[in-house]
Amino acid sequence: MDARDIIKRPIITEQSTSVLDDKKYTFEVDTRATKTHVKKSYRRNFRS
Fold first, then answer.
1. CB proximity list for 42: less than 8 A, separation 6 or greater
2. pTM of the predicted model, to two decimals?
């Protein structure tokens, strides 16, 4: 599974935007991905 295929898109709702101040982000992810896959994919795509 490719890191770019795990995280599909951000979820923008009233609740998800209220937790942005706590540096918590909400994404739609592939149902086959584990927490470890999501963590690695996030780091690879959004962190340097």
1. 7, 25, 27
2. 0.76
